[in-house]
């Protein structure tokens, strides 16, 4: 019989199940099963934030990704119905050091384990996440598979080989709303048309809180339909997958730019604004995911601590050479491009997440800037 204790020294109780994590480069990690029993595969990535796991797990930009939480304890304040960024858990799978069943928080309504089971998310705990993250940081992004039903590595290898590569993958239209919907005061003179590629709930909240009447549109909505709303400005949302695999969205952003109305893009929306200006995007080595990434605003000279979640970036050389686009924000850790604006047009975007949730509110001024531009 397969004995985890013999292989790894991890102690199991009678009711615990073994889970296996296999990386694309052949590395195997054993641990305990958590959440739903099953098998799941996707791109492995890590988030360095110490809190806000429920907001992270429900962020649609994580679709197709198996997430490692760097923090040693995840789950200890449970889950509730409020701390969500969309209607369901969007990560493909979860890896942790200690995924806690016991929780303590007066607003909590359930445990992380029950929540993952309800959302059919397979997880593995008791993994040496420090070693695993150090490995990903060195080797770069790759696919992985977790299973609590198949323990034979050869079988898992065959299943993993069928998992598509994130590079070139279009995922935004899968998580986008299928139907248009409206939020905020319908009589407000401030109207924002949102192009939804997997928008986080708190981005829409930040617009509504500033008095906007928002109409959210499916990813492939033609620009003619967006214009029918007669908005004061356009918002291009965050979302999962490779921006370069979204020519339909690049065309929409180009058409919006031609209209010369205010445009604000976040994360995937930022990458699409770059692509619409002929600036390429690229797959990063292992991306940025966390809530303490320092960014410098080159216009004001001030720095801000930002929330991030991206695996693609805007080509720094191409953007700096571009005569019509200005770099407004840079990452102070690796000097990657964090913000741009189009010269002579009211169009700007950031690679990070100014709505935060979870994270500090340093960057929420960008929503005020957008509203001021529209007024
Ligand atoms: N949060 C996002 O919008 C992510 C954008 C894109 N999918 C990336 O990984 O870079």
TrEMBL record:
Key words, A-Z: Amino-acid biosynthesis, Arginine biosynthesis, ATP-binding, Glutamine amidotransferase, Ligase, Nucleotide-binding, Pyrimidine biosynthesis
Return the HAMAP family for the record: CPSase_S_chain
What's the gene?
carA
- The active site lies at 267, 353, 355
Q: What class of enzyme is it?
A: ligase
Q: According to its UniProt record, which protein family does this protein belong to?
A: Belongs to the CarA family.
The record's listing under SUPFAM superfamilies reads: Carbamoyl phosphate synthetase, small subunit N-terminal domain, Class I glutamine amidotransferase-like
GO terms in the biological process aspect are:
'de novo' pyrimidine nucleobase biosynthetic process; 'de novo' UMP biosynthetic process; glutamine metabolic process; L-arginine biosynthetic process
* Enzyme Commission designation: 6.3.5.5
**Protein known as:** Carbamoyl phosphate synthase small chain
Describe the function of this protein: Small subunit of the glutamine-dependent carbamoyl phosphate synthetase (CPSase). CPSase catalyzes the formation of carbamoyl phosphate from the ammonia moiety of glutamine, carbonate, and phosphate donated by ATP, constituting the first step of 2 biosynthetic pathways, one leading to arginine and/or urea and the other to pyrimidine nucleotides. The small subunit (glutamine amidotransferase) binds and cleaves glutamine to supply the large subunit with the substrate ammonia.
> To which species is this protein native?
Filimonas zeae
**What are the residue boundaries of the Carbamoyl-phosphate synthase small subunit N-terminal domain, all occurrences included?**
17-147
Q: Which Gene3D superfamilies match?
A: 3.40.50.880, Carbamoyl-phosphate synthase small subunit, N-terminal domain
* Annotated GO MF terms: ATP binding; carbamoyl-phosphate synthase (glutamine-hydrolyzing) activity
Q: Which InterPro entries match?
A: Anth_synth/Amidotransfase, CarbamoylP_synth_ssu, CarbamoylP_synth_ssu_N, CarbP_synth_ssu_N_sf, Class_I_gatase-like, CPSase_GATase1, GATASE
Subunit and partners: Composed of two chains; the small (or glutamine) chain promotes the hydrolysis of glutamine to ammonia, which is used by the large (or ammonia) chain to synthesize carbamoyl phosphate. Tetramer of heterodimers (alpha,beta)4.
Keyword Amino-acid biosynthesis listed: yes
